[in-house]
Write a structure and sequence with these properties.
The chain is an alpha/beta fold. It has 18 helices and 19 strands. Bound molecules: ligand NPW, adenosine-5'-diphosphate (ADP) and potassium ion. Adenosine-5'-diphosphate is lined by residues 369, 396, 430-432, 434, 449-451, 453-454, 456-460, 462, 491. InterPro entries: Carbohydrate_kinase_pred_CS, CARKD, Nnr, Ribokinase-like, YjeF_N_dom, YjeF_N_dom_sf.
């Protein structure tokens, strides 16, 4: 595992830190190291930002003239901020410190004393503060456990109103380290330097509006200390490129043939929602699956053929409403002919018999969209109990609630763990921070995405892509949750690349399908 993949709670971070200190690392030395790493990273970002953000009238020209306000808290988060204050002072920035606390931890107090001895102005009252070009927030880190109130809450709201870029140390002050909940009020950062290991709260949706761009500052925590606290196989992990490339089974074997590269059956679309079938098919195309069959109502078969000439389009008898009434597979084919089935986008809830049929089959199965709505009507847990083979459910929040009305989905990590354990399925809960769990509670979180994906049809693309990867690798000793994670990561990265080239408004679902291979190519070049 790489450092980027680990996710910790405050208690786990404290325990890991405890081991490092017990082994002889002086606390002050670690703070010094962390502070220097933050200042270096900050200087790089500031140089880039300066070219795009107008500076205050006090700006005196040149990078060294920038004005920086440091917000220092009473604990070691404040200590980190004071090391950064000193470093930036020596680099030529105009620095001031806001420190309104009566009682400081000893190390923090020493750094404050030294900063003052260097002539760095230090203020305790908001009204006294000069202007600045940006703020560095070191009020609270993972030691914050209770609500922020009174003058500190007022100060945080005041700084948010300044509309200056804010860089937060470890996490935006005011966020709960584990849940990402706002404790009273919180700094709205433009950039967060997360220290050492990703804190769980930074991966929770409720924290997203406060974090800005997040970056991990690696300060060389020994892997042995991480595993001693998190276990050899940590329960909660962040998806990274490495996860994905371990799963995609590339490069292809030189002796492969089309049936060795997987055969996927997509069951999707209706007269009313023909587009869902096309988007799912285009998502599957990008997976590189060897054989793609798509079952649709007879009347939309010509449309599918025109978009996906390489796929075998299976026209099925349809209901009066234009949904598939039953599957009519080609001669000598049954469901066992496929390595995986992905089922649901655009089906409408009139296709109930199809869902019953695929659930009763013994083929690895992905259910999405109307596949999930029908499953909810059939009774989620009792219906899935019959299944022997792999099942993957990919609900968005509304579908999740229909499937699992008794599970509280506010804490998304717990929600997917419970849903997966109740059903024996791998459950992916879509959203800004998609969370995935297997029945044993091993969780992947997709921490990089873009709101540009919040558009109709983008989930259909994910279903097709995931189905194709599943069909390709399902017989190759992979963990199913890794396949699901790989698809979620690839889908989001496609969206992120599309945003870079086309803006956040330019990522309709069809366009997204065109970016999947482009982003894969860039990622492969990156790791070579
Ligand atoms: N782990 C690592 O490897 C490393 C960690 N490092 C850094 O240490 C940080 C953690 O430091 P930390 O433990 O001192 O806690 P921190 O977040 O500064 O705040 C706690 C202080 O705030 C106070 N306080 C709390 N709530 C409050 C409230 N509502 N309103 C007002 N006050 C409140 C509380 O006081 P008390 O509860 O005693 O009243 C206490 O004094 C971590 O985020 C990282 O930046 C790096 O330096 C090196 C590597
Ligand atoms: N705010 C957001 N940030 C990042 N990704 C998002 C956001 N909102 C939705 N998504 C992603 O967009 C996709 C939407 O899927 P879904 O709701 O099933 O749409 P549809 O059914 O129209 O295809 C999911 O992959 C989801 O994770
Ligand atoms: K902070």
């Amino acid at each position: 595992m790489t450092k980027e993949q680990f996710v910790v709670t405050a208690a786990q971070m404290r325990d890991i830190e405890g081991r490092i200190f017990a082994a002889g690392m002086p606390v002050a030395a670690l703070m010094e190291k962390v502070g220097r790493l933050i200042s270096d990273s900050f200087a790089r970002h500031w140089q880039r930002l300066q070219s795009i953000i107008p500076l205050s009238p006090l700006f005196q020209g040149g990078l060294g003239g920038s004005n920086v306000g440091i917000l220092a808290g009473p604990g070691h988060n404040g200590g980190d901020a004071l090391v950064v204050a000193r470093e930036l002072h020596f680099q030529g920035y105009q620095v001031w410190i806001y420190q309104p606390f009566a009682k400081l931890k000893e190390l923090t107090s020493q750094h404050l004393q030294y900063a003052q001895s260097l002539g760095i102005p230090c203020f305790t009252e908001l009204a006294e503060l000069p202007s600045c070009d940006f703020l560095i927030d070191g009020l609270f880190g993972f030691g914050l456990e209770r609500e922020i109130t009174g003058n500190i809450a007022e100060a945080i709201n005041h700084f948010n109103d300044w509309n200056k870029p804010i860089f937060s140390i470890d996490l935006p002050s005011g966020l709960h380290t584990d849940t990402g909940e706002v404790l009273g009020t919180a700094i709205r950062a433009n950039h967060t330097f997360c220290l050492g290991l990703w804190k769980q709260g930074l991966l929770q949706e409720q924290a997203l509006e406060y974090i800005g761009q997040a970056e991990l500052i690696d300060f060389d925590i020994p892997l042995a200390d991480i595993h001693a606290i998190l276990g050899e196989v940590p329960k909660i992990k962040r998806i990274t490129k490495t996860t994905v490339f371990d799963t995609l089974s590339l490069p292809l074997s030189p002796t492969t043939h089309k049936y060795k590269s997987g055969h996927l059956l997509l069951i999707s679309g209706s007269k009313r929602y023909a587009g869902g079938a096309i988007l799912t098919g285009l998502g599957a195309r990008a997976s590189g699956v060897g054989m793609l069959s798509i079952a649709v109502p007879e009347s939309i078969k010509p449309l599918l053929i025109s978009h996906l000439p390489e796929a075998l389009i299976i026209g099925c008898p349809e209901t009066e409403t234009g949904a598939i009434s039953h599957l009519q597979l080609p001669p000598n084919t049954d469901l066992n002919s496929f390595n995986a089935i992905a089922c649901g986008p655009g089906l409408t809830t009139d296709a109930t018999p199809i869902i019953e049929q695929v659930i009763n089959s013994d083929v690895p199965l992905i259910l999405d969209a109307d596949g999930l709505n029908i499953l909810a009507q059939l009774g989620t847990i009792s219906t899935l109990q019959k299944r022997q083979n792999t099942t993957i459910l990919t609900p968005h929040t509304g579908e999740f609630h229909r499937l699992f009305p008794d599970i509280n989905y506010q804490d998304r990590v717990k929600a997917v763990q419970t849903a997966a354990s109740q059903t024996g399925a791998v459950v992916l809960l879509k959203g800004a921070r998609t969370a995935i769990s297997n029945p044993e509670g091993v969780v992947w979180i997709n921490a990089e995405s873009t709101p540009a994906l919040a558009r109709g049809g983008s989930g259909d693309v994910l279903t097709g892509l995931m189905g194709g990867i599943l069909a390709r690798v399902v017989n190759k000793q992979v963990n199913i949750e890794d396949v699901v994670a790989a698809a979620a990561w690839w889908h989001s990265q496609g969206g992120i690349l599309a945003v870079k080239e086309r803006t956040e408004l330019g990522v309709d679902a069809f366009t997204l399908t065109q970016y999947l291979i482009r982003v894969l190519k860039l990622s492969i070049e990156d790791i070579l």
